[in-house]
Amino acid sequence: MSLRTADYNFSLPNDLIARYPAAQRDGSRLMLLDRSKQQITHLRFPDFVDLVQPEELVVLNNTKVIPARLRWPDRNAEILLLEQVDRLTWRCLVRPGKLFPKDSIFSIEGWVGTVIQVVDEGDRLIGFDHPIDLEKIGEVPLPPYIMRAPEAIDRERYQTVYASHPGAIAAPTAGLHFTPDMLARLPHEFLTLHVSVGTFKPVRAAVITQHRLHYEEFEVTEAAAGNIQSAEKVLAVGTTTVRTLETLAKRFNEIRPGKGVTDIFICPPFHFRRVNSLLTNFHLPKSTLLMLVAAFAGREFILEAYTEAVKERYRFFSYGDCMLIR
Description:
alpha/beta; QueA-like; Thrombin, subunit H; 6-stranded antiparallel beta sheet; globular
């Protein structure tokens, strides 16, 4: 176990960052990690259905990504809508900051905005003159490491097939691999956690315990909570699902229904109370998501797996391949 941020680093060739999704949703590769045997096996994602054990319940995050990025067509500036405060007001991330000082007024695509306040970490509270029609002027908020403008394909593929609760500004990417047919063959349940921009924020502290993690809103229905609580084993799809389940298990010692907010930072050492297996994509070096996975599988084993993934030329990050940790 290590608490040094530098010990969660790895070398990644730039050409292994997936900038487009696989041709087919289930066309990605799947790395299987057996924690007890410390064994790595190379598979394809369609094999996932046969790997799910009879006593396991697959739990997925059904949040839906909103087209939250607003960009000017004629200048290098943009706004990322982080959180809706009320009907006309949003908490936003802006770029470049010098164009959006307090009390400044701007227009974009027929909307007029006013910077009401500069808040924590440079975010802005911005009030608009009428409710924003995101479907009309918003873009898919692709992660910065994809390094391209959104295209038509992203409207479909940067979204899970079961996305149903709008509010995320990043996709729960482990779920991007599933097709409706695969899902129909699996015992599964849904919860909702709206992924926020904090998922991309780097850990700047030298010691990971000094990093303050973002908060995210979640909801678990009564039916889902009952099914997850009574399941013999839980296979969580994605770190966001893990975050929700382990927040509830730590807070109440059970999976309770309702809405809530979590700022839990899962990193080594961590006692997992509800999640038995984890399906996840490959994450950024020194990221909180890599630290969560390291807490689940062990830092040394995860870094060994990442080294193997680079060697075998797996595709990394949101549109990349995935691993199942047993």
